[in-house]
Structures are given as C-alpha cells and as structure tokens.
C-alpha cells in the first residue's frame, strides 16, 4: 500500500521528502554519506532542464568542454579568497592504490598503499583548473572572448544535506568565459543571468527576482555576484542561479594574459555562472501540492497518461483501440504519452501512480466513453475530483491547448503566491514579525539596509534571515536602515533561505 504524504501545513520539510519518495525521484545513498541516487523519473526531469539550457548556451555562442575532477591542491592556494570560501567544503585525495591484507584468522582488511606527492581536491567548482588551461589557450585578443561551459558533478562536504537542495555530490553546469575588457565580461554576466531568469520563468514556471548579492554573500573570489531568487511555498527563498563577475582576480592568479590590439600585454577579464540539480528541488517546492508532485508541462517527462477501464475481453479490445487512437493523436502533436495497459493493476492505482509522478494530464477511457466518442480528462493542476469529457476526435489540439494553459497557470499561481507573501518593513520589529509571516509560511521582506557587513551579520544572527539580493527592479525610494537608522539607497530583500 502506498505511503501517505504529510501535508505542507503540518510539516513542510517532511512533505518535501514524501513528494520525492512518492514521485520516485530520488533517494538517499546511505552507503555514501550525504549523496543521493537520482532515480529515472527524477533524472528525466534533470535531462529536460539540461537540454533546454544547453540549447540556450549554444545559441549564445558557448561551447561545451570537460575538465578534470581532481584539482591540484596548490591551485586553490593561488587565489586566497577562493580557497577561504571553499576550504571547509573540500574533499581531498591523499593516496592511491589499495592492498588486501589477511590477518591470522583469515579476516581481510584493506590498506591504502601510496601517498601522493601532491594531494588533489575533488572539484567544489572549477575556476582554478580552468584558469590554468585558459593560460595555455589564450595568447592574443583574437582568442577572445573564450566562451566555455561544462556539464559536470562537483563535491562539497556538506554537514546537513537534503535531497536535490544540498547534497555532498551534485550535478550542475558551470560556465567560464574570458574577455578582453571589463565591459564585455559584464555584458556576459548579465546576459547569462537573463538566460537563467527566462528559463526559470518560461520553462520552470517559477517566478524569480534578479539582483546583486551583497559582498558578504558573493562568490568567493568574485568582484560581484548576481543571482535569481525564487520563493518556495513555505515562504523561504531558493537561490536558483548565479552569475559572477570575476574581474581579473583569476587571470592574475593563473597568469592568463593576452596581447591587446594595441600590442600591450594584459590580464583577461573572467566570468563564471551556474545552476545545479537544486532546480529540481525548486520545481517541487514551487508547484507540488498535498497530493504529490506537480510538474509544468515543459519539464514533465510524461505529458499524458491514459488509463483504460474495462471488465470483459470484448470491452478491452475496443477500449484499447480507442486508447491507441488518443495516444497517437498526442504523440502527433509532440507530447510524450503513456498508455497504461498493465493487467496487474486496478485503474485507481494507475491514476494514483501518475498523479504522484506529476503527469500534467490523465485520460480515462471506458466502454461508455468509446460509445460516446469521448474521453475523460483530469488535470494535475486542478482538484483531483474535477473531470471533463472531451471528444476523441481532435484530442491532439485540445491537449496542446491544455499544456499551454497548465504551464501559464502554474506560473501565475506561483507569482500570485509570491506577491501575497512579499511585505515591506520600516522598523526592526516589523522586519522580525514579517519574516515569521503566519508562523507556517514566511515572507520576503523589503526593508532598508545601511550597506554594512556588520548590520547584515547582526540581522542574520538574530533572525536567521539573509539579504537574498539587492533587486535590480525597485521604486527608487531612499530611506533609513531598519536596524541602525543610517541612510539607505534602496530596499533589499530579506528572507530565510534554503
């Protein structure tokens, strides 16, 4: 019997785990601390994310490459801020080779053989090793801009993990580019942030806020970091993508120089940008409900599931014939359709399984429906009891329209939720009260900040909230900091976050 899903109101964290379990997306890899196994249905979602983003990257001139998993430890020492930012999360390879040893009782133990001359860090990110190779590849302004992307896995030794959102090993893409001047590199930084934002909103149906990170929250080794921030259904923020202006920091650290048009030797200007499998977590927490997983059609591995209903063999033949007609019509308009003709499951169990997997539309067909030339349509984004009879003839066009309607509706619903849970605060007490919301769902709080790291740190310590970003879009209102009363140029977004 299927396990039930905890409601969001009762325990949001447990609800999230339950949706992943019931949707058959992933599970903890108990034998490898902090890691996860992404199951086929979960990986299919990641593949769709990857394919859409990869297309966008290539359309903007980027080419894919691959760099080593192991980074010489000495490389990290070349950029001081960078090593400080990742020092506690690094896993280090110190030895190679194993040897099996038997004791007197015959028990076998494994010993490590050879200590490495230089230790290697398993990549937490690749700026350093890519900087090394950029130095080999770039000699002249004619080699610039160099636009590289890598799809890879990385490792960060997290103390507290959660499936998709924060695991010791995770999948991601990391873009790395080199430019002849700062103006060109900044265009790249903002162009890729816009690519992420457009993908989040138009493919994930997840509204995001573009903005700049504070110096305390920026990427280690960057001049500036920019981000897109999304609100989850518990009112917490999820950083869904970042784009970094690295300036000449890594160019200087790894001696990445080029000869300019004027014949001068200069250091390159670099960027890096990335998203990861945490987008799958964001997808779950933005759209899913107490019945399980809800997926926007553009990322659903299966768009339509057809459940035939019959009692006799005669009914079975004609029902399945009609089901095949519906399936073929769906496939003809570019949809992925599953005809669930398993004999060992009852129709109710089939409906439940496809509901748990977030399939946008389920279609039910029985003898009476066939006689009437109709099928029964159930939408995953609506009340599960809601059903609509639709003519089989022309069902392909109907399904195409439904997919567009569901995609748009999920975005609008998420945007309305964010607007309802975004508030302004003008005093410190108002900020603290607003962050808590109703005690179950928190808020994004727009408040003035004096721009100092000290004020930022004190608010974080006392409220567990961080400045998610300094938003690009704002009303231009100046004011005074909610904590210190010092001048503030604009409101920033405070929130608790994943």
The total strand number stands at: 25
Beta-strand percent range: 25-35%
Percentage of residues assigned to helices: 25-40%
Number of helices: 14
Query: What is the terminal-to-terminal distance?
Result: 32 Å
Q: What is the oligomer described by this structure? A: single chain
Low-confidence stretches: none
Structural class: alpha+beta
Can you list the strand order of the major beta sheet? 3-7-8-14-11-10-9-22-25-21-20
Q: Main beta sheet, described?
A: 11 strands, mixed
* Tertiary shape: globular
Question: What is the averaged pLDDT score?
Answer: 96
Computed Rg: 26 Å
Q: How would you sum up this structure, described in words?
A:
With about 500 residues, the chain is an alpha+beta fold. The protein has 14 helices and 25 strands. The strands form 6 sheets. The protein has an 11-stranded mixed beta sheet with strand order 3-7-8-14-11-10-9-22-25-21-20, sandwiched between helices. α2 (about 40-60) crosses α6 and α9 (about 315-330) packs across α12. The two termini are about 30 Å apart. The model has no long low-confidence stretch (mean pLDDT about 95).
């Amino acid at each position: 019997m299927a396990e039930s899903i905890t409601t969001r109101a009762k325990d949001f964290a447990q609800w999230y785990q339950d949706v992943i379990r019931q949707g058959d997306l992933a599970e903890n890899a108990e034998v490898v601390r902090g890691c996860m196994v992404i199951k086929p249905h979960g990986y299919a979602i990641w593949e769709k994310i990857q394919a859409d983003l990869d297309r966008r990257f290539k359309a903007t001139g980027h080419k894919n490459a691959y760099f080593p998993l192991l980074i010489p430890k000495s490389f990290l020492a070349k950029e001081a801020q960078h090593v400080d930012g990742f020092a506690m999360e690094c896993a280090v390879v110190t030895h190679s080779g194993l040897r099996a040893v038997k004791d007197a009782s015959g028990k076998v133990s494994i010993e490590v053989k050879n200590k490495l001359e230089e230790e290697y860090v398993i990549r937490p990110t690749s700026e350093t090793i890519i900087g090394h190779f950029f130095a080999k590849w770039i000699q002249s302004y004619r080699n610039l801009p160099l636009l590289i992307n890598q799809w890879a896995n990385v490792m960060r030794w997290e103390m507290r993990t959660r499936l998709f959102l924060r695991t010791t090993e995770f999948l991601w893409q990391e873009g790395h580019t080199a430019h002849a001047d700062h103006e060109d590199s900044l265009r790249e930084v903002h162009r890729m942030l816009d690519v992420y934002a457009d993908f989040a909103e138009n493919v994930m149906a997840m509204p995001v806020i573009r903005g700049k990170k504070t110096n305390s929250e920026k990427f280690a080794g960057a001049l500036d970091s920019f981000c897109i921030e999304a609100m989850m259904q518990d009112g917490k923020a999820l950083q869904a993508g970042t784009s970094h202006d690295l300036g000449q920091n890594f160019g200087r650290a790894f001696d990445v120089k080029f000869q300019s048009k004027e014949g001068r030797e200069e250091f390159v200007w670099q960027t890096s940008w990335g998203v990861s499998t945490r987008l799958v977590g964001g997808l779950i927490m933005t759209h899913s409900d107490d019945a399980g997983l809800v997926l926007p059609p553009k990322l659903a591995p299966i768009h339509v599931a057809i459940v035939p209903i019959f009692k006799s063999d005669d009914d079975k033949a004609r029902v399945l014939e009609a089901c095949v007609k519906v399936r073929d019509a769906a496939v003809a308009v570019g949809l992925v359709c599953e005809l669930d003709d398993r004999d060992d499951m009852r129709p109710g169990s089939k409906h439940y399984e496809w509901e748990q997997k977030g399939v946008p539309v389920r279609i039910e067909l029985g003898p009476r429906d066939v006689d009437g030339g109709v099928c029964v349509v159930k939408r995953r984004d609506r009340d599960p009891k809601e059903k609509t009879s639709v003519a089989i003839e022309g069902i392909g066009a109907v399904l195409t329209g439904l997919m567009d309607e569901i995609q748009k509706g999920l975005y609008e619903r998420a945007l309305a939720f964010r607007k309802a849970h975004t508030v302004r605060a003008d005093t410190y007490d108002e900020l603290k009260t607003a962050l808590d919301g109703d005690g179950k769902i928190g808020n994004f709080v727009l408040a003035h900040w004096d721009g100092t790291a000290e004020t930022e740190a004190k608010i974080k310590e006392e409220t567990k909230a961080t400045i998610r970003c300094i938003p690009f879009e704002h009303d231009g209102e100046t004011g005074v900091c909610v904590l210190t009363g010092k001048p503030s140029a604009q409101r920033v977004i405070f929130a608790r976050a994943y």
